[in-house]
Design brief:
Elements lengths: L1 H15 L3 H6 L11 H10 L2 H9 L3 H10 L2 H10 L2 H10 L2 H10 L2 H10 L2 H11 L16 E2 L5 H11 L8 E5 L5 E6 H6 L17 E2 L4 H11 L3 E5 L5 E6 H19 L14 H28 L1 H6 L7 H24 L8 H31 L1 H31 L10 H23 L1
Parallel strand pairs: 1-2, 4-5
Antiparallel strand pairs: 2-3, 5-6
Helix pairs in contact: 3-5, 8-10, 13-14, 15-20, 17-19, 17-20, 18-19, 19-20
Length: 452
């Protein structure tokens, strides 16, 4: 323990003093706590450009690969340009295929092509294959390193195969069964293989009930399947059902985090950021928010037009102005609640597009129930402020608004999903703005009928 602490102190001193030769001499002795990309990313970002490449070359090989995979595209670009062909080739060969595809996608075209040219034909073909899949597809996040066995093999043969190939495989707990031509026919667990008698054939362990993904499926589908079935890995097949890769739990959890972040930002009318907050420029933050706000301002002009249209009614019954903020907030909040519930239910597959009629019916009943409760409160306020007629206006408006807001909030996610749009945009300012307009129309409509 003491030796490890001394070594860690020596490493930190070498970094602090920019003693890159000494650091390189210690590269094979780095203690485990320091073999982490975030630690080195922080150090790298504090160094001058001329020292970054020297520090990078002094790192252990496995840490170089992890560091490249965790750097922002601009920093990775600067490092890779300065590396020799041999150094760049070693890093590209060691990178996981999904990390390699992400890196190539973010780098400038000429540099990406240079790195591809350094790979051997097989690796280059694999990289191009990954690179060709749509950006948010399962094909871009899968790994081609997995264990597959044949149905006619014995469990002894399958385990021997696993021992030979398992060191290069990212995930061992699930073994995939394919035909001779490579078409997927089932998956079995490592536990089944180990516990079965050695002479048992693999096909005797099969039940032919398995889930799978296609290479062009959206990555959100991978998240949904792993959450629904509790799997740690899902096979990926091409258009002919040939097994081409595996999506693992850790990859999917990273995607789930990104998707949840995107949905969270969209609910507040913010365009999702490519980098974290501190990694985004002022211009990027400005662009991510201003266009939505401009659009909402234009839509809100309709609200002004509604008020202007009922100007005479409002001037004749000034007491109506007292209830405008109350009713507007009630309409917007109710619509936002309903849309958020349905958006989440759609994302977790608790409901589907086929359930739209049942959902709207349920939300209609809920809207009336809440409208009656809140309407009685509104009736009391109306009586206190303006008498029976004003009380009836507020009562009728609250009931109508809650029913309409529930229906609009529930319907919008279905409509957006039907047109292949993200329903998350319906749960924030969009539905609130729509209900502001409808709330005013409903309010003044009832006022015109009751108050004349």
């Amino acid at each position: 323990m003491a030796d490890a602490l001394v070594l860690e102190a020596d490493l930190e001193a070498a970094i602090q003093n920019h003693e890159w030769v000494k650091l390189a001499q210690l590269k094979n002795s780095w203690p485990e706590p320091l073999l982490a990309a975030p630690y080195c990313v922080d150090i790298l970002q504090e160094l001058d450009k001329k020292d970054r490449i020297l520090f990078f070359r002094a790192l252990p090989a496995e840490l170089q690969v992890e560091l490249i995979a965790n750097l922002e595209a601009e920093d990775a670009d600067q490092l890779l340009i300065q590396l020799t062909d041999g150094e760049a080739r070693q890093i590209m060969e060691e990178l996981e295929p999904d990390d390699r595809a992400t890196l190539l996608d973010e780098l400038p075209g000429p540099l990406a092509l240079r790195l591809l040219s350094l790979l051997d034909p097989t690796e280059a073909k694999e990289a191009l294959n990954y690179w060709g899949y749509p950006e948010d597809s399962v094909g871009r996040m899968m790994t081609p390193r997995f264990i597959k066995v044949k149905p006619h093999w014995s469990c002894r043969q399958a385990l021997e195969h696993l021992r030979k190939r398992g060191q290069d495989v990212e995930y061992l707990e699930t073994v995939f069964v394919t035909e001779v031509n490579g078409r997927l026919i089932d998956s079995i667990t490592l536990e089944q293989l180990v516990l079965a008698r050695p002479e048992t054939l693999v096909e005797e362990l099969m039940d032919r009930h398995y889930i799978y993904l296609h290479t062009h499926d959206d990555r959100e589908k991978a998240v949904q399947l792993l959450q629904t079935y509790g799997k740690l890995a899902i096979p990926v097949v091409d258009s002919k059902d040939y097994l081409v890769g595996v999506v693992t739990f850790d990859d999917v959890m990273e995607v789930a985090y990104q998707e949840d972040t995107e949905d969270f930002l969209k609910t507040a009318a913010i365009k999702p950021l490519k980098h974290d907050y501190w990694g985004s420029s002022l211009l990027t933050l400005f662009r991510s928010r201003v266009w939505w706000l401009l659009g909402l301002v234009l839509v809100n002009l309709v609200s002004s037009s509604v008020i202007a249209y009922f100007e005479k009614l409002l001037l004749a019954n000034v007491v109506l102005a007292f209830f405008l903020p109350l009713l507007a907030d009630t309409a917007g909040n109710t619509g936002s609640q309903s849309s958020t519930l349905i958006m989440r239910a759609l994302s977790t597959q608790d409901v589907s597009l086929a359930h739209w009629w049942r959902v709207l019916t349920k939300e209609f009943v809920v809207g009336i129930s809440m409208g009656l409760v809140l309407g009685v409160m509104g009736l009391g306020l109306g009586l206190f402020r303006g008498g029976w007629e004003v009380g009836l206006v507020v009562l009728a408006t609250v009931i109508t608004i809650l029913v309409v807001a529930n229906l609009v909030g529930a319907a919008l996610p279905f409509v957006l999903t039907l047109f292949k749009q993200d329903p998350a945009v319906a749960s924030g300012p969009l539905v609130t703005t729509i209900m502001d307009i409808l709330g005013l129309v409903i309010y003044f409509g009832w006022a015109a009928m009751i108050l004349g």
